Hints:
By secondary structure, the protein is of the alpha+beta class. It has a domain at 4-90 and 182-314: (Glycosyl)asparaginase (Glutamine Phosphoribosylpyrophosphate, subunit 1, domain 1, 4-Layer Sandwich), CATH 3.60.20.30. The chain has helices at residues 20-42, 47-59, 104-114, 122-132, 145-156, 240-246, 248-259, 263-274, and strands spanning 4-12, 80-86, 92-98, 119-121, 166-167, 173-174, 188-193, 199-205, 226-228, 232-238, 280-286, 291-292, 299-306, 311-314. The strands form three sheets. It has an eight-stranded mixed β-sheet with strand order 4-3-2-8-7-1-13-14. The protein has a four-stranded antiparallel β-sheet with strand order 9-10-11-12. A two-stranded antiparallel ribbon has the order 5-6. Mean pLDDT is 92; it is low at 166-183. This is beta-aspartyl-peptidase. It catalyses: Cleavage of a beta-linked Asp residue from the N-terminus of a polypeptide.
Amino acid sequence: MGWAIALHGGAGDIPLSLTLGSRWPREEALHHCLQIGVEALKAKKPPLDVVELVVRELENIPQFNAGKGSVLTNKGTVEMEASIMDGRTKNCGAVSGLKTVVNAVSLARLVMEKTPHVYLAFHGAEEFAKEQGVETADSSHFITAENVERLKQAKEAHRVQIDYTQPLQNGTKEETSNSNGEVQLGTVGCVAVDSYGNLASATSTGGLVNKRVGRIGDSPIIGAGTYANELCAVSVTGEGEAILRAAVARDVAAMMEFKGVSLEEAASYVIHDCMPKGTAGLVAVSATGEVAMPYNTTGMFRACATEDGYSEVAIWSAS
Length: 319
């Protein structure tokens, strides 16, 4: 048994022709955030603190679809959402519909710790954020020129666009994301376990490009996008509606709990046998320090490290 950590920056049709200009800042961000998590675990910080710390950092990086990089609704606004869960206690918190909160994952943790509730959304969540004195910013802080252009493209193609999928004028899906090898943004998440087997998970996103105002995806839903118990911690990314229908995160834990299989076997089965191809990926760790990072999409921005010295940052399969 030893500590372990895994994180993701989204899964989808990430082109193998991805330009260095798009690939390098995301890989550097994953290295950076992984190092933050590793140092925190080495400093004996609780896994709940670790996943919040890492996801906060990912939210502050505009190359990912969360926080500063959140994509836009059909009204040109941001609606951010996040969740966090402690595996030992199964305490959890979630938020949706945020327009001004800089770090949605931290507000989710405050919902968990400062209210009798699990989930706050929209005006109620914003009001709670003001009461708690969390950092906020004008909505313009979250709106980037790149995401304005992505929304324009999605509207022209009459599409709602998931992570790393570029709409085309004729309504077809382009497998390589766009013609010049650039890449879209992705949901972020982190899972961690300490040397004592304590687990935690957190996930954060801006949702879908051109989504209807008020749409809620899988990321803030406990059991779908995020889950942790005494056996494992899971954070999921991909097509939210498909992930919601399958309750992906909880399914991984249920496989371990009721069938007694390993984390690797459970995570692989749920992603490859239960989910439609091209819809999802996840990162997970077990109480014994195992790591699993399966995906059924072209690629997934991901990173992991374990106490025995193993470390990986990757996008596509090595094969």
